């Protein structure tokens, strides 16, 4: 069945750039786009028309975590390490703590996050560290199947992973931090990740893909990363790894290996077109790192690795990428991710735009078009998907319809500028994935949003109680979050 969308504006891909067509049209049949232009030359079985809509390619959340970030609603001091001892492990505690949530609550936790992501226009979600639902190595296989089923039912496109590592940091009772290293743990995690890939890669008519996610440069040994690269190459899987996400990570890697995190990955042969670097903020030339301002950027660009840029968690900590235009000018593929709640990719674009100008010390760049392109074609290219992130014949019918009629938007001259500067995910009216409507009138069709909203409070309360029980310093949640200073 051919569906034709007629809208006030359409972001069409001309092979090199997005260009806006006023009073444009998009036609698709099944999961494939047939036509993008000013006037469709053939008849359609269904016509959907709204002159207030800006029709965009589906946005791609290149670095997400499928699971509600319950801390986001109360933190105003950055992500920091306040919950790290409770969410990782503590001195003398078991290395792997029992899951804090029941299987039902775990499923709800993942669904809450997925619903927020697709409501905001993310048609593809890359789960960059193993979701909260299946974080703990050794969880029963039904937990993994439950996440895949939830993605399938919601109708999203997703790249899932089981995260693993060979080291875990922890906080001692005196407040200092240390590391527990276990190479067998890391290799067992890689084996589990490969089993997960063999079972679920390509599920739900290909909407579910699997990638490998060794968690971070500072907690994965060179041997584990080498084994990961070998397994990924043999299986044709992508890799994402958290890289240069903290200033103290740079100090650790320099102490251990004598280089920056990016330099270390280069030295061990762990850069390339199949590897996405999560965050990648603290590179050479960053004010907190120093050194040759071109060196790490050249290493990334020469290797063809991509960067998943998620500005929100670092803005909350007073940090930022220095600077988005520099990465782009070096020819690095940069995509946009939503690392933490509220996982609103339109708001994330806006923050990338603002912070990019601040760190670049100019109002000229990045432009709205550059961050819009990063959230679409940039993220798609990082995944090696020429059929995503663009409205063009032959591309997947992953389409977002944004309502620009809101009072807060005002008169529209350039819809891309209006989207980035004034909109949020709440302006998304309709979302298609593979040509099927999964969001209509701002509501996810295959989810009970009100029930999930109620469940979120119970999930938050449970995790807060567990956090206090596991805190090595015996603090209450209010003390951990410093709420007693503000209430």
Explain what this protein looks like in three dimensions.
By secondary structure, the chain is α/β, with parallel strands linked by helices. The chain has helices at 84-87, 103-119, 141-154, 183-200, 222-235, 247-257, 261-267, 295-303, 311-315, 324-329, 345-360, 368-382, 415-422, 449-470, 477-480, and strands spanning 2-13, 18-22, 25-29, 32-37, 46-57, 59-64, 89-90, 122-127, 157-160, 163-164, 167-171, 177-181, 208-210, 213-214, 239-243, 275-279, 306-309, 333-336, 399-403, 428-433, 436-440, 443-444. Mean pLDDT is 89; it is low at 78-95 and 131-138. The longest helix is centred in the last third of the chain and has 22 residues, at 449-470. It folds into 2 domains: 2-57 and 394-444, Urease, subunit C, domain 1 (Roll), CATH 2.30.40.10; 59-382, Metal-dependent hydrolases (TIM Barrel, Alpha-Beta Barrel), CATH 3.20.20. Helix 11 packs across helix 12 (368-382), helix 11 (345-360) crosses helix 13 (415-422) and helix 12 (368-382) crosses helix 13. The strands form 5 sheets. Strands 1, 2, 3, 4, 5, 19, 20, 21 and 22 form a 9-stranded mixed sheet that branches. Strands 6-8-9-13 form a 4-stranded parallel sheet. It is built from 15 helices and 22 strands. It is 35% helix and 23% strand.
Which homologous superfamily in CATH is the superfamily of the largest domain?
Metal-dependent hydrolases
Point out poorly predicted stretches. 78-95, 131-138
Estimated share of beta-strand residues: 15-25%
Number of strands: 22
> What is the straight-line distance between the termini?
57 Å
The top-level CATH class of the largest domain is Alpha Beta
**What is the radius of gyration computed over CA atoms, rounded to a whole number of angstroms?**
22 Å
Please report the number of helical segments: 15
The CATH architecture category of the largest domain equals Alpha-Beta Barrel
Major sheet attributes: 9 strands, mixed
